[in-house]
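Researcher: I'm comparing several assemblies side by side, and this is the next one on my list. It has 526 residues spread over two chains. Same procedure as the others: predict the full complex and return the structure.
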Amino acid sequence: MRQDMKPSMKPLLRSFGMFIRQISKDSMLIVVCIAPILAAFFFHFGIPIIEGLLCEFFRKTTVLTPYNLLFDLFLSILTPYMFCFASAMLMLTEYDEGMTSYLAVTPIGKKGYILSRLLTPAVISFFASSLLLLYFALTTWAFMMIIMVCLLTSLTSIAVALLVFSISHNRVEGMAMAKLSGLMMLGLPVPFFLLSNVQYIFAFLPSFWIAKLGMEQNVLYFIPALLTSLTWLWILYRKFERKLT
Amino acid sequence: MISVKNLNFSYTKKPFIEHVTFEVKSGEIFGFLGPSGAGKSTLQKILTGLITTYTGSVKVNGTEVKQRDNSFYEQIGVDFEFPSLYEKLTARGNLSFFNSLYKKQGDIDALLASVGLTADAAKKVADYSKGMKSRLNFIKALLHDPSILFLDEPTSGLDPSNARLMKDIVLTEKARGKTIILTTHNMYDATELCDRVAFIVDGEIKALDTPHNLIMSKGAAKIQYTYLHNGREEKGQVSLSKTSEDELLARLLRNNQLLSIHSSEPTLNDIFVEITGRRLQ
């Protein structure tokens, strides 16, 4: 079947241009998009200062330093999460305005819409989070590890956007759902604090395997992280497509 | 131009659109007439490629809709029942964006003028009235000069003068050779605009013909008249085709004794009720 294949570049670029234009007209979404940069500055410069104050207060040599990797992992997921949240909010607005169905019957098409609203922001956020991790990480990262982790966090964030858009009926519900979708990130601290096998209760969360990958530096963890991400994407995409129709 | 053969589709396991077959010729205005929930909008979604999980064959402009690529949309224009516009943009901003998506680009100023929106072109759509949004939504479908237009309730929510304006544009587009698929539950629009109409109820086509043939096939026009008889007003009625056989009417005419006389034709709605057992409005 050749359904809705190969959206041509011009409508796709126009559609993405409209995506950026809509975000630029929404002050909340502008803040959402720059939040990861603010967070990167805070993590990189603020946490060492806080660490110094806490060590002095508790008379210890380290308080937060053992969790520097956790801060880095949060930073790696924050950029795609925020971008995809902005995308989901925008898609909900477009859904309210009847644009979602209409754009599907223009040369943008359904696939073009998905590309411009989900895939392109995820690709941009992949590069953005890689750069932030490269320059603002608190721990030392191998280049390949940055690529793997940021790829996984971008995929997880697409799942978050699909979840928020598919289940919410409007922006207000979307905001509530976005808070709930923060649970998708719950897997990140699990391997840091739950050391027994009980931690595998969270194995259904891609973020759990991303944290394992970061902690163990074992590329084998990339496989369950990828598989759980793709499973979430597969389940949520079906709901998303039903809503688009 | 459009060929649908043995089309079946359902949102659930229960059958909805069943065994639908019809053809629409080039330059024709073809109407889907039916009550809400009959399957008209679903049929339009299938024809425009929004729904592709159907069985049977649906060809638009020679392309099986399931196998379309995005160039398919260069040739069709769609006007949904509810406006689909960017509320934060101006009318001109909206049209400019949609215009930029197509290879063939329309004259935005001329289109705005055709529906009386020139003075409001710089106004944000959020500040538009419902009728203004409907008019803007309608011309959005004409931007790229498509050969097939899908119009869903184009006069819904419009005042009579704007409804007239829209209908005149539809007729102009037909005169320019466009094929138009009109989805409506307004029998007056269907009677006035459509070359042929399909009655749709519960996902099935119950009848398909020209509005005139449908009306004439089920109930001929009648003449109704009143006259005085023994000081009381009486009514008479005769089929238009049998007027000469009505001796009473002939005598009343000869003696100038008629109190009133008028012809009465069944409406498309009467025929719809007779065929489907359901009401349109």
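Model: For your comparison table: Chain B touches chain A at residues 45, 48-52, 66-71, 73-74, 76, 78, 80, 82-88, 97-98, 100-102 (CB under 8 Å).
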